[in-house]
UniProtKB/TrEMBL annotation:
Gene assigned in the entry: LOC108617608
Transmembrane segments: none
GO terms for MF: nucleotidyltransferase activity
Protein name: Nicotinamide-nucleotide adenylyltransferase
Family: Belongs to the eukaryotic NMN adenylyltransferase family.
Length: 358
């Protein structure tokens, strides 16, 4: 039975997913779009998803809050390094100017199918782009590249002057859309209101995301500029990179060095070409404010014990009487003269107590 399933999967039409945009910075939801789309196709047994491609836009796009292309590429590689099928394409950022989405799709679509149909020994592996999925030549049938997006991109087709009608028709007719929508939205109505989208609606796949996540790149930038925490909203290594490069006017006091720079698997080609290269650890500026949950412990004379815990030192401890289950602060007395004085005063205190009781 398993052999039959594998054979059926091998016969499915192949698709690749590409997401275009700023990715400034890339968020976990950007990665989730790929996972949601792949699950949809493969669980329904309609297509085999061979790869996911992230193509960040050119610097000349000029959108507010757009970090330099090399920094965005480095962050995407960090965000996607736990995935074995989502990859960065930097073709767009290395073009002389901003490219229309139609042109980006054309390039990647043509490269995929030309690679499949070319002789095996025509190109050495080292010349192949890093975004190219592995194992494409196991079959000779073409791969269809689909534009992966959220419902906001679909709705942007209606913004006057933003998209040319011929571009929309070219994308939907020759490639297709995979739209991840929010629960409660009505993308069908939007498609109905558009003559072009209605004409090619068989090429539009609508997928409802039942686990909504409203975290956006603009929200992350806003929180960073206000000095608020964005931990758990971004991958830790992306967050660490933002701090080290000083992106987005970062003021957050909660960004920490939880991951050391030696452990950050940056694409060294980007880092070597980046004029904002990472400084050695010894040159890193101190954090604006240390937080007890994520700053290294300092050596202090004061030590804190919980109930039931005792010090292993032979020094005397000055305690305040705690309540049950209450943490107390214990000051370690370092002076021997002070300790001797305390020991000698105990008999005097006992005598005074007896006199007061009489």
């Amino acid at each position: 039975m398993s052999g039959f399933i594998e054979e059926k999967s091998f016969m499915l039409p192949r698709v690749a997913l590409i997401a275009c945009g700023c990715f400034s910075p890339p968020t976990p939801m950007h990665m989730r779009l790929f996972e949601i789309a792949r699950d949809y196709f493969e669980l329904r047994g309609t297509h085999k998803v061979v790869g996911g491609i992230i193509s960040p836009t050119h610097d000349s796009y000029g959108k507010k809050g757009l970090a330099p292309a090399l920094d965005r590429c480095a962050m995407i590689k960090l965000a996607a390094q736990s995935s074995n099928w989502i990859r960065l394409s930097d073709w767009e950022v290395h073009q002389p100017q901003w490219m229309r989405t139609k042109a980006v799709l054309h390039y990647h679509q043509n490269y995929l199918n030309n690679y499949i149909n070319s002789p095996y020994d025509e190109e050495p592996n080292e010349l192949l782009p890093g975004w190219l999925p592995p194992g494409l030549r196991e079959r000779r049938d073409p791969i269809r590249l689909k534009l992966l997006c959220g419902a906001d991109l679909l709705e942007s087709f209606a913004v006057p002057g933003l998209w040319a009608d011929e571009d929309i028709e070219e994308i939907v007719a020759n490639h297709g859309l995979v739209v991840i929508t929010r629960c409660g939205s009505n993308p069908e109505k939007f498609i109905f209101d558009s003559d072009i989208l209605t004409k090619y609606q068989q090429n539009i796949t609508l997928i409802t995301n039942w686990v909504p996540n409203e975290v956006s790149s603009s929200l992350v930038r806003r929180l960073l500029s206000r000095g608020e925490s964005v931990k758990y909203l971004l991958d830790d290594m992306v967050l660490n990179y933002i701090k080290r490069q000083g992106l987005y006017n970062v003021k957050s006091k909660y960004i920490t060095d939880a991951v050391r720079p030696d452990h950050l698997n940056f694409n060294r080609a980007y880092m070597d070409n980046n004029k904002n290269a990472i400084k050695p650890e010894s040159e890193q500026p101190e954090q604006l404010m240390e937080d007890e949950s994520d700053s290294p412990l300092r050596q202090q004379t004061a030590r804190v014990f919980c109930c039931g815990e005792s010090s292993r030192t032979s020094t005397k401890l000055l305690l305040s009487r705690p309540g049950p289950g209450q943490a107390v602060q214990v000051m370690t007395v370092q002076s021997k003269d002070t300790i001797d004085g305390l020991e000698q005063s105990q008999p005097k205190k006992q005598k005074i107590a007896k006199v007061q009781q009489v």
